[in-house]
Design a protein that fits this description.
The complex is a heterotrimer of chains A (about 300), B (about 350) and C (about 450). Chain B is about 70% helix and about 0% strand. With about 350 residues, chain B is an all-alpha fold. In chain B, the strands form two sheets. A two-stranded antiparallel ribbon of chain B has the order 1-4. Chain B has a two-stranded antiparallel ribbon with strand order 2-3. In chain B, a hairpin with a 2-residue loop joins β2 and β3 (about 175). Chain B is globular and about 70 Å long. Chain C is an alpha/beta fold and about 450 residues long. Chain C folds into two domains: about 25-150 and about 290-390 and about 420-430, Rossmann fold (3-Layer(aba) Sandwich); about 150-285, Response regulator (Rossmann fold). In chain C, the strands form four sheets. Chain C has a seven-stranded mixed β-sheet, with helices on both faces. A two-stranded parallel ribbon of chain C has the order 1-2. In chain C, strands 3-4 form a two-stranded parallel sheet. Chain C is globular. The chains are: A mainly alpha (about 300), B mainly alpha (about 350), C alpha/beta (about 450). Chains in contact: A-B, A-C, B-C. At the B-C interface, α3, α6, β4, α12 and α13 of B face α1, β2, α3, α4 and α5 of C.
């Protein structure tokens, strides 16, 4: 029983960590799905968003609930600016060029964030207690943080909204058309730039949500950009183009990573979390090269 | 007028298969080598050698390696630094454990070790493509560095996992000053670059390009995809491995596995793309650009008189913006600019 | 587009050329290169540390320099990256008549220039990091791991934990977790901890955290399962705040955690919020206020020359470390001037002598206005560390407070034996004949 409870605790804690990875992965998926761009700057955007929120509260002395809407507006503007100054001139370029452009963007955003708000480390208090839930502790002896459950809830809401957006709205249809084929979409009259602008603005919003949750846990600091590295295996496992894939991938990666670290790690010297998810995703890809829910690429000669 | 191939007739097969078929190119390359081997050592200062030229050449070699894989064979990799690490730590161990091991042979053996690791991690490329492959190569990056930190044998049981590269000595001659190290690095890089230039137009090189352009089609016309992809991984990793060994032996001296981190992999990918995919010359241009630009920026912003906390961030922003700018102006890299220049020169000064 | 680009090039070219001609410094200035980092993941620490150094240099200049020799310095952004750091070192070392001492504040860079400083005859100080065995000046004449090295720190930690348990023999049968950053840095203290494990009979559980350590659920689940008596947190960067926070999440008492000094600054505890209360770490500065810091407030920040943009950070942990480094440099130069000629600019070789013959005792500390801010330092060729003492501080929710009134010293003899062994191995590998320079 003891062993089983412990296993369960590791599993649940892993699943909840996975949700946090999914949050970041969602931003990647959204942009990839709508424009075929692998947006490496997502991590920098997470950092920028969190820092902007904290910076606004600090500089203007406003409470958090005022700062967050301001940050949403700033992130949306940032998204629109990226579309206009980076992506629009690069339409129809090879994928790898676009990928590189987003790496350039990463440097720019990182520099900008620290230039405007400074490089000191700041706390971010959302008012969600990050302590074990007493009830579970008493009943099962398990340490599950309330904060994680809130994060999971937020993530669920986001995913539902995104799925609805993609499948039920006019914009969603336009997005899917653009993702399928830029030129075909343009020729049937879909306003490409308009659509991309929206997508980047929404991605900015998702970065803000991820930034707030991660920032409140790690402190708002440069290292927030590293959360992107946690999202990549989620992405390859779940498929670059699938919103539900980001969630399922996150859960799988989170759970197996923790189980591996706790049960296999001590046998080989530990610290395997850094590469284990990548190897797992790699092995998985050997079976399904497009990830769990990725669209199958049909290749013609 | 200056650069034209018209009138240069090839009358034998041997003649026709030269590396540089055009006389002007041969002269230019010979001149370049003379400048690099003779003129620069006469005039450059130690700072130019050890601050700029040595890292430039070493990174150019690694870029060349990645360019073989990404530019010629079409497989994106984010694990370049890991292959460099394998090369460096393997060379170190060969030097340490085999008495009387010549250092150049150790570099080659280090490169071969890197090639073997490259083949192993190249296997998934047979199934996986594009960004899926790119993200999976991160597995190499993290796994190799983890291994080097974890297994004490690789670092000769050094408590902290740091190695100190041995003295570079060839036939009793010690390479100690920056100038001597520069010449050694230059010689290695020049030989390997010429080899690469030759290789990419051989059967192997052509098979890489066929696979890059459309692997299914390449398979249909009789290329063995597995062989092409894996040789690309092997050759590319070999180059990276040698570059990594040079990085440890001729540049940093004492290194920890973290010196070969993800940042380095990204920097090398930058160099490939800014320089130009599928171009040997581009590898050098790209490496030069990415090595020199931050130094240049830091020198320039340093004299703006702004406080350092501002200039450091400005430096980063301008660096990012310039990369985007270059991609927008010339998505095919600096090598393409060079090519355009050559085509202009073909007619110049009589364009009509 | 083309036009704009050429114009940009022209402007930068002009800027560069005017800059190069304008950088000739006056002859009577002691030039110091600063390999600083103010961007990237460790920018917060870098800006505090180098801010502290520069503030102290400004204070020295405001007081008339070292026997009339003013200090001048130039910064170069290393981004905490080994190859950028090496380039910066190479760029700055021969400027303005040549560098005389260097401090990279980063393990990777320190390793990258380890061989170079010996060839260039420029001493390198590594305050509280870098190779511990560099304390042996016979093998590493140009490297100064001053005040305390990682090994001394590990020994100090065990000593403190032993005292806390009521005697070193009381550690027998206890469980100590070494939670470390999975890198050269985190593995450095392992030989010391393992030696103590053998001699004192406690159980050492080693749990690595992969870089960057922004997620530590599995490590803390393991810790909770092991239920140790103490956790040593050997972390760096974001890993520290996350460790403290995760400890709170799994209900591990922070009072049982003991961090290294790189886990013991405001940057590490503030992001953790309330969770950090009661968390203690090692340090080599006694937190508090000192006359020298008041002087800096008055003479440097009062004159608008302060380096920190945020005045609240004056006297913070990193700032104080920077001031300490500045004091040591200046004292070494003063020392060297006493031997080689007062009011002269010192060369690297001369400053090296100054560093090797440092003696900052309590009288000297009092004169400098830093009594008890750092342990007394007395260096020699055999001992480049000069002290080996550490202190323990605790975070009370707002500020760091000293826990141990006096300095904590681990098993000095054991550490010196290990330094001798390890540096002998290095000397054999590099074929160095270990010897102390005369004079």
């Amino acid at each position: 029983m003891e062993i089983f409870l412990r296993f369960l605790e590791v599993l649940i804690s892993g699943l909840l960590s996975g949700v946090m990875y999914s949050l970041v992965a969602l931003g990647f998926v959204l942009i990839y799905k709508a424009s075929g761009v692998f947006n490496f700057a997502q991590g920098a955007m997470v950092f920028f968003a969190a820092l902007t929120t904290v910076g606004v509260t600090e500089k203007f002395g406003v409470p958090l609930w005022v700062a967050i809407p301001i940050a949403i507006v700033i992130m949306a503007l940032l998204g629109l600016a990226i579309e206009k100054f980076v992506l629009r001139p690069l339409v129809n370029q090879p994928d790898i060029t676009l990928f590189m452009a987003t790496i350039g963007l990463t440097f720019f955003i990182e520099g900008l964030a620290q230039l405007v708000w400074g490089s000191t480390v700041r706390p971010l208090e959302l008012g969600i207690p990050d302590v074990p839930i007493e009830w579970l502790l008493d009943k099962a002896g398990m340490f599950i943080s309330f904060f994680d459950l809130v994060a999971a809830g937020i993530c669920a809401v986001l995913v539902t909204a995104l799925v609805l957006l993609f499948n039920k709205t006019k914009i969603g249809r336009a997005l899917r058309a653009v993702a399928d084929d830029h030129q075909a979409a343009l020729s049937v009259g879909i306003p490409l730039h308009h659509v991309w602008g929206i997508v980047w603005a929404v991605a900015g919003f998702i970065a803000l949500v991820a930034g707030l949750l991660w920032g409140s846990r790690n402190g708002v600091q440069f290292a927030l950009t590293f959360v992107a590295l946690k999202a990549l295996p989620v992405l390859i496992l779940g498929g670059f183009t699938s919103v539900p894939g980001a969630i399922v991938g996150g859960l799988i990666i989170g759970a197996t990573e923790k189980l591996a670290e706790v049960y296999i790690g001590p046998l080989v010297g530990g610290g395997i979390e850094g590469w284990f998810p990548y190897v797992l995703a790699l092995l998985f890809l050997l079976v399904r090269p497009e990830g769990l829910f990725g669209e199958k690429i049909i290749r013609r000669i | 007028m200056i650069y034209r191939e018209a009138g240069q007739y090839k009358t034998t097969y041997l003649n026709d298969s030269q590396i540089f078929p055009i006389a002007q190119d041969r002269v230019a390359v010979a001149l370049l080598l003379v400048v690099a081997f003779v003129a620069i050592p006469l005039f450059a200062t130690p700072y130019i050698f050890s601050g700029i030229l040595i890292p430039f050449l070493i990174l150019a070699l690694a870029t060349l390696g990645l360019n073989i894989l990404t530019g010629y064979a079409g497989q994106i990799s984010l694990g370049t630094a890991a292959f460099m690490a394998v090369g460096a730590f393997a060379s170190y161990n060969f030097m340490l454990r085999v008495p009387g091991m010549p250092v150049l042979l150790a570099f080659v053996l280090g490169g071969i070790c890197a090639a073997l690791v490259g083949i192993l991690f190249g296997l998934p490329s047979l199934r996986i493509r594009g960004f899926y492959l790119a993200a999976s190569t991160l597995a190499t990056q993290f796994f190799v560095v983890w291994c080097l930190t974890k297994v004490p044998w690789f670092t000769n049981n050094s408590s902290s996992g740091v190695i100190t590269a041995q003295q570079v000595e060839i036939l009793g001659f010690k390479f100690e000053t920056p100038q001597q190290k520069y010449l050694l690095v230059l010689a290695v890089v020049a030989v390997m670059a010429l080899l690469a230039k030759n290789m990419v137009r051989s059967t192997v090189g052509r098979s890489w390009m066929a696979v890059r352009d459309m692997d299914v089609a390449a398979e249909v016309i009789g290329f063995r995809i597995m062989k092409s992809k894996l040789t690309a991984f092997a050759v590319s990793s070999f180059y990276c491995g040698v570059a990594g060994a040079l990085y440890a032996f001729c540049y940093l001296g004492t290194v920890e596995p973290e010196a070969y981190n993800l940042d380095l992999s990204f920097r090398i990918l930058f160099m490939v793309i800014i320089g130009g995919l599928g171009s040997i010359l581009g590898s050098f241009l790209g490496a030069g650009f990415i090595v020199l630009l931050p130094i240049f920026l830091s020198v320039v912003v340093h004299y703006t008189g702004l406080p350092n906390s501002v200039t450091s961030n400005l430096e980063l922003m301008v660096f990012g913006a310039l990369i985007i700018f270059f991609l927008i102006v010339e998505p095919h890299g600096l090598a393409r600019l060079w090519q355009i220049g050559k085509e202009k020169l073909r007619l110049w000064p009589f364009p009509h | 587009m083309k036009f704009r680009f050429t114009r940009l090039l022209a402007i930068t070219a002009v800027a560069a050329s005017t800059a190069l001609t304008g950088s000739l410094a006056a002859a009577q200035e002691q030039y110091l290169p600063l390999l600083s980092y103010r961007v990237g993941p460790y920018a917060a620490g870098g800006s505090g540390f180098f801010g502290g150094m520069i503030d102290y240099f400004n204070l020295v200049n405001a007081n008339g320099g070292i026997n009339g020799v003013k200090l001048s310095w130039e910064e170069c952004e290393t981004e905490y990256n080994a190859s950028r750091g090496v380039e910066c070192y190479e760029r700055l070392k021969s400027k303005n008549g040549g560098a005389s001492v260097v401090e990279p504040l980063g393990t990777g860079i320190a390793y990258g220039i380890l061989d170079r400083v010996a060839t260039d005859k420029i001493p390198m100080t590594t305050l509280g990091y870098g190779r511990s065995d560099a304390a042996n000046g016979a093998v590493f004449p140009y490297v100064y791991p001053l005040i305390t090295s990682y090994w001394s720190q590990a020994a100090g930690m065990i000593k403190y934990l032993g005292d806390k348990a009521g005697g070193m023999d009381k550690l027998k049968g206890k469980k100590i977790v070494h939670l470390y950053h999975d890198s050269a840095f985190g593995k450095e203290p392992l030989p010391v901890l393992e030696a103590y494990e053998k001699s004192l009979g406690f159980t050492l559980i080693k749990i690595p955290v992969p870089h960057p350590g922004n997620e530590q659920n599995s490590q803390w689940l393991q810790i909770r399962q092991a239920n140790p008596d103490y956790v040593i947190l050997w972390g760096w960067g974001v890993m520290n705040a996350v460790a403290v926070k995760t400890a709170a999440r799994v209900g591990f008492p922070r009072e049982k955690m003991l961090g290294v000094w790189w886990a013991g600054s405001e940057e590490d505890t503030i992001p953790a919020g309330d969770a950090a209360k009661g968390y203690s770490t090692m340090t080599f500065n006694t937190p508090g206020n000192y006359p020298v810091i008041d002087d800096i407030r008055k003479k440097v920040y009062g004159a608008g020359k302060g380096n920190l943009s945020d005045k609240d950070r004056i006297g913070s942990v990193y700032h104080m470390r920077g001031i300490t480094a500045g004091i040591i440099w200046v004292e070494a130069m003063r020392n060297a001037q006493a031997k080689y000629g007062k009011g002269k600019v010192m060369t690297g070789e001369q400053v090296r002598w100054g560093l090797e013959n440092l003696n900052i005792d309590e009288t000297r500390q009092k004169a400098l206005g830093v009594l008890n801010m750092f342990p007394t330092i007395k260096t020699s060729c055999q001992d480049h560390e000069g002290s080996g003492a550490t202190k323990v501080q605790v975070w009370d929710g707002k500020a760091w407070k000293a826990v141990t009134p006096s300095w904590v010293m681990g098993d000095r003899a054991m550490i010196q034996k290990m330094v001798a062994e390890s540096s002998a191995k290095y000397a054999a590998e590099k074929k160095i004949t270990a010897a102390c320079a005369a004079g």
